[in-house]
Here is the input.
Amino acid sequence: MDVSLRLPPNKRLRRTTFPHAGIEATLLDAGVVVSGETAGYRWPVTDIDARHRAVFVHAHPDDETVSTGATLAYYAARPDTHVTLVTCTLGEEGEIHVDALAKFAANRSDQLGGYRYAEWLRACDALGVVDRRMLGGAGTWRDSGMMGTASNDHPRAFWRADVDAAAVPLVEVLREIRPQVLVTYDPNGFYGHPDHIQAHRVSVAAARLAADSAFRPDLGPAHHVAKFYWTTVPKSALADGFEALSRSSDNPFEGAAHIDDLPFGVSDDEVTTRIVATGYGRHKLDALAAHETQVPPDNWVYVLAAELGADAVTTEHYILADGERGPGDGPWMWEDDLFAGVTD
Ligand SMILES: [Zn+2]
Here is the structure.
């Protein structure tokens, strides 16, 4: 195949060979449109020369936006930073909030995954995240649905995946990108969803295996991630939004009378890092709108933004679970940069 490429600034072509089988999946999975001349093909391109590099691992399309959208947009816009998003499933078991698309549901035509893949690409475009990948290739693992449901037992359910096996494609990404920062959920997957818990386990395994030079040397030289973060929300921030949320008909906290009843939220002293991505509220809200099957117009994030201003959705919190904490500020010495203290 002879295709002339016009690469974006600071990007370089990583791989130019295409397997004849599965060519479309390989190209789409790479997640970067190089130029119109390539007729829509997406090529694996990374600017691994960027000084700062972060990999975010999420369970389903829309998680990247809801929990880390402002952070992704903020870092993707920084010229010295490369951001890679790895999403583990297509979210096939998600609810559908658009009546006309209800026919795609898992218990009907079961085509939601393909639709959400397109939503995910549009959301990444809104966030400015050009390097977006599906773990192992789109459709390798399937959305497991909520804990205890029959969909947990689907042969491709991410929840059933062998953790070390599922970590291999992530090891490959870590050794290619060589990020200083890795972001995913805490051991409870932030709120207990099986795929979020599994994303945590797979990320932990991948970080360990990527650093082990004896493991799969064919995947590249060993790489140690300097800072490993979990997403979190401090109860103090929840308190600000709790009332606004109760006015959304799409309130994820329905039934909770008090912040302490929620399945997430930590005390301020457990938080290590706060990213205030002022100016990136529009990116996050546009990305959210791209996930139209998942996000009704009265979604709590919109309500929060409408009631408390865009800054209410551009502040995102993290816990540094592994690595050396950088300099911080305020009563809890929170870092204001995921790369705080990173020197190399
Ligand atoms: Zn999710």
